[in-house]
């Protein structure tokens, strides 16, 4: 037990320390019971099963991408590794039901085939030293891809089709746990809402740091998050001629609100753009976009202040639902 004479502030931080320790944030040594599987229909998509300590004012600074990451924060995030011609490429995907993930089409388009892709679900960061994936998160799944479904109206050589840069990856049915759980899709009426100036969140599997000393980038394959602001399409299209051709009502543009060197990189392609919405007694996370393009072709990461283009998901719901009829969606 803690010392009853301990100062109240010390008691508070003592309990926080124990909480983090026993949730595998600090050293991963505490043992937890494996979460029970959850119903694949009687579920609330996009919900979390814990308090987001990273949003508490006193502790938010501890949970930057450079320090600590809470377990189970994003149970719908998938790491997609494509190995073609001996070269691995990392992208990010999002679980939307029990057997399909959404990602960017340019990550998995021809000549890539299903057998070239591996999907990992249920863990946050594979760069934690001296820890196995099972220790970082007890519910870890690595699975093959059964089928790639490409949006028919995307052409990688035509920037005007960026709004169709979507692909569905079919995997074997998964059982939902606290670490493997689907995000909530928007509704068909959401496309009539203006999301300009909304603060959203994006997460991905590639982080980069710009170094002034060598005027280049050093990258590492790690999981990270960033806060972004959705900007108006009018402002985005006026950024330069390239954006003028790419931006239309079926895309969303964002601008960073974080650190100067915190722009997305190639591994972020396919990353989700997410907003939180209050539902019943808890918040749910809604998928509003999939990262299509950002970084210039001759650089691994985007420059700070350059808009990032996401495919707007509410406009693509008919295509998504038509191609996932064999899947089980959460009822709520």
TrEMBL record:
Domain Peptidase S1: from-to ranges: 43-325
UniProt GO MF annotations: serine-type endopeptidase activity
Signal peptide boundaries: 1-28
Pfam families tied to this protein: Trypsin (PF00089)
BP terms from Gene Ontology: proteolysis
Record carries keyword Signal: yes
Superkingdom to which the source organism belongs: Eukaryota
Keywords: Signal
Protein name per UniProt: Peptidase S1 domain-containing protein
Species for this entry: Ignelater luminosus (Cucubano)
């Amino acid at each position: 037990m803690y010392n009853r004479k301990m100062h109240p502030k010390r008691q508070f931080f003592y309990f926080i320390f124990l909480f983090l320790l026993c949730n595998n944030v600090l050293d991963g040594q505490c043992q937890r019971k494996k979460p029970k599987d959850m119903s694949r229909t009687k579920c609330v998509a996009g919900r979390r099963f814990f308090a987001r300590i990273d949003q508490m004012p006193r502790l938010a600074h501890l949970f930057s991408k450079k320090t600590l990451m809470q377990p189970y924060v994003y149970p719908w995030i998938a790491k997609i590794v494509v190995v073609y011609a001996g070269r691995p490429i990392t992208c990010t995907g999002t679980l939307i039901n029990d057997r399909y993930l959404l990602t960017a089409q340019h990550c998995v388009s021809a000549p890539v085939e299903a057998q070239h892709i591996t999907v990992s679900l249920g863990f946050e960061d594979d760069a934690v030293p001296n820890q196995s994936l099972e220790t970082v998160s007890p519910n870890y799944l690595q699975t093959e891809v059964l089928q790639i479904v490409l949006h028919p109206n995307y052409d990688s050589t035509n920037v005007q089709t960026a709004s169709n840069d979507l692909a569905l990856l079919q995997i074997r049915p998964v059982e939902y746990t606290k670490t493997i759980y689907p995000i909530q899709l928007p509704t068909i009426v959401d496309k009539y809402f203006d999301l300009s100036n909304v603060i959203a969140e994006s997460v991905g599997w590639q982080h980069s740091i710009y170094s002034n000393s060598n005027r280049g980038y050093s990258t590492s394959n790690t999981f990270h998050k960033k806060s972004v602001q959705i900007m108006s399409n009018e402002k985005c299209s006026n950024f330069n001629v390239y954006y003028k051709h790419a931006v239309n009502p079926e895309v969303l543009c964002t601008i960073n609100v974080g650190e100067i060197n915190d722009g997305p990189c190639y591994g972020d392609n396919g990353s989700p753009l997410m907003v939180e919405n209050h539902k019943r007694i808890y918040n749910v996370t809604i998928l509003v976009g999939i990262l299509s393009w950002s970084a210039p072709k001759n650089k691994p990461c985007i420059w700070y202040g350059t808009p990032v283009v996401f495919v707007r998901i509410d406009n693509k719901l008919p295509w998504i639902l038509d191609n996932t009829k064999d899947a089980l969606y959460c009822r709520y």
